[in-house]
Q: What sequence folds into this?
């Protein structure tokens, strides 16, 4: 038996409707793939930002812990070595500065504690400025009062986007919101407060300063 005869129209290929349907399906597939790629890139970007943010927080934590732990308790004639407020802290500590020039707008601190406590002793002030930057300002410590004008402190930006810091001072079994005494407190606690909606969170920084005063 001979096979049925096929007209030339049967060999003409896809109809216009079939081509339109194929293009629609292809468009849907490309759109789905594009959304998947965008989602993957966004997730990667968020993860990268979280890693960078965690690194800056860890660096600031490490710097502040070391400075407080190596805090210079001074001598009985030096006066108060720690003057603490609820949202700021002034103290002395050995500091090794890789570059003495001020570096505003840096987020990664370039501070290292000095290997010898008697070297590079600095007067430091920790606070949050109006631009919501956690600032560590410092000047080389001088045992005498300078006759000329007070030099401009160097500034290190430890973190940005900080609402405030809450500082408390532990002594005699009680946490205090202020401190002004001849000797440092038993513990100093620094809490980083971020603005509402900021996903960052960091545990309280708690460190024990040196307490033994040097002889006069």
A:
């Amino acid at each position: 038996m001979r096979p049925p005869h096929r007209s030339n129209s049967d060999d003409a290929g896809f109809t216009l409707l079939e081509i339109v349907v194929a293009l629609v399906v292809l468009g849907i597939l490309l759109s789905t793939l594009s959304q998947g790629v965008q989602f993957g890139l966004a997730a990667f970007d968020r993860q990268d930002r979280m890693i960078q943010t965690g690194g800056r927080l860890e660096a600031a934590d490490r710097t502040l812990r070391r400075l407080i732990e190596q805090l210079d308790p001074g001598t009985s004639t030096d006066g108060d070595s720690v003057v603490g407020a609820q949202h700021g802290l002034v103290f002395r500590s050995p500091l090794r500065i890789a570059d003495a020039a001020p570096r505003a707008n840096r987020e990664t601190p370039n501070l290292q504690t000095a290997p010898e406590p008697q070297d590079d002793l600095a007067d430091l002030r920790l606070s949050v400025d109006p631009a919501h930057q956690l600032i560590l300002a410092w000047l080389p410590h001088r045992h005498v009062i300078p006759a000329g004008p007070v030099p401009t402190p160097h500034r290190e930006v430890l973190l940005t986007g900080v609402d405030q810091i809450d500082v408390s001072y532990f002594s005699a079994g009680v946490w205090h919101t202020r401190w002004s005494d001849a000797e440092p407190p038993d513990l100093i606690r620094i809490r980083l407060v971020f603005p509402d909606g900021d996903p960052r969170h960091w545990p309280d920084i708690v460190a024990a300063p040196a307490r033994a005063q040097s002889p006069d």
Remarks:
- DSSP finds one helix and twelve strands in the chain.
- The chain has one domain: 48-207.
